[in-house]
Amino acid sequence: MHNSLIINALLKWCKTKNINEIRLDVYENNPSAIKAYKKAGFKNI
């Protein structure tokens, strides 16, 4: 629940600043973070 609130606030703020791309560095050995970001719509590149 908290993750989605933080991510949604970040995305909203980025839109107000005309930021169109967000990149994250997430450790491979942190599956809970990877899962949370994927659930929020982020993709691996």
Automatic annotation (TrEMBL):
Query: Known Pfam families for this protein?
Result: Acetyltransf_1
Q: Matching InterPro entries, A to Z?
A: Acyl_CoA_acyltransferase, GNAT_dom
One term of GO molecular function: acyltransferase activity, transferring groups other than amino-acyl groups
Q: Tell me which SUPFAM superfamilies the record gives.
A: Acyl-CoA N-acyltransferases (Nat)
**Which parts of the sequence belong to the N-acetyltransferase domain?**
6-42
Q: What is this protein called?
A: GNAT family N-acetyltransferase
